[in-house]
Amino acid sequence: MVLGVGSALLYLHQDCQKCVVHRDIKPSNIMLDASFNAKLGDFGLARLIDHGRGSHTTVLAGTIGYMDPECMVTGNTSIQSDVYSFGVVVLEITCGRPATIADVKGTTIHLVHWVWEFLQSRKDPRCSRCTAQWRLQRRGDGACDGDGTLVRSPRPHPEAPSGRL
Q1: How far apart are alpha carbons 94 and 142 in whole angstroms?
Q2: Secondary structure of the chain as H, E, C letters
Q3: What is the dihedral of CA 93, 96, 102, 108, to 10 degrees?
Q4: CA-closest candidate to residue 66, choices 30, 104, 117
Q5: What are the backbone dihedrals phi and psi of residue 99, each rounded to the nearest 5 degrees, phi first?
Q6: Each residue's pLDDT tens digit, 2-43
Q7: Contact 123, 148 (CB under 8 A)
Q8: What domains appear along the chain, each with residue ranges and CATH number?
Q9: Catalytic residues
Q10: CA distances from 144 to 82, 118, 140 (A)
Q11: Which pTM value belongs to this model?
Q12: What is the pLDDT of residues 33-61, one digit of tens each?
């Protein structure tokens, strides 16, 4: 699914005659066909931008939790705004949590901030000695030192070239 949506964004952003900025990438706008191929839908908020232009000033539009914070402040939308939203969708898939989370006090926390805090603290709030270590070693991302502190793997992760998934 992630590759299908990523390919759709690559097409919209680079391969179309004019750049198409979707502005509302979220799970409910991703559909699966009979073969479980992902299809991006709901282009009601989409805007056309010349490839060389970069951004487009517009009325604030999108879904809270998926909107690029920079777009919310400046009102400028760009392909980077779509990539941010796509990243939130990937985080949802990876973490198994929605884009916005209510904490015990009822305060709304955005998933991006929750993940950022997790990475800053290097602690997994759901960690128990065995399950976190097994989960991390199974994925090959690192190991858990037993108290919930994550230890990164020394193996570097190569970055994909621009335009490739």
Answers
A1: 16
A2: CHHHHHHHHHHHHHHCCCEEECCCCCHHHEEECCCCCEEECCCCCCEEECCCCCEEECCCCCCCCCCCHHHHHHCEEEHHHHHHHHHHHHHHHHHCCCCEEECCCCCEEEHHHHHHHHHHHCECCCCCHHHHHHHHHHHCCEEECCCCEEEECCCCCCCCCCCCC
A3: -20
A4: 30
A5: -65, -30
A6: 999 999 999 999 888 888 989 899 999 999 999 999 999 988
A7: yes
A8: 2-96 (1.10.510.10), 124-152 (no CATH)
A9: 24
A10: 34, 14, 11
A11: 0.68
A12: 999 999 999 888 888 887 766 555 566 77
- Which of 41, 39, 42, 68 is closest to 55 using CA atoms? 68
Cα–Cα distance, 143 to 133 (Å, whole number): 5
- The first and second tokens of residue 40, run together, are 């991006």
Euclidean distance between CA atoms 107 and 100, whole angstroms: 10
Q: Worst-scoring range by mean pLDDT, 3-12, 68-77, 106-115, 146-155?
A: 146-155
- HSE of 76 in the Cβ direction (CA atoms, 13 Å)? 8
Residues 96, 3: Cα–Cα separation, whole Å: 18
State both tokens at 139. 């994925």
pLDDT, position 38: 92
